[in-house]
Amino acid sequence: MGDSVEKLAQLYIKEVVRLHGIPVYIVFDRDPWLTSRIIIIIIIIIIIIIIVVVVIIILIIIVVVVIIKKKKKKKKKKKKKKKLMRTLRWKINIRIKQ
Prior knowledge:
Elements: H1 2-20, H2 32-97
């Protein structure tokens, strides 16, 4: 297949370019309706991708906030437990001294 493509390219250059020159522009023979539909589809796909990325970013932010809240809650609980332990030790020390 590679040979036939090369032969076709050589034939094109030999015959068409020799007679008509190198093409300055390419005529797009598709219907403008089809072209506009393709552009609309591409725009819709880009919008969908942007929406998905934004949703993912929002979900990541929510997860990070939840993790931070859990850590703070855990820290607070630990602090409360330490305070309770100090109070219990203090009460135990008072009883022992009496």
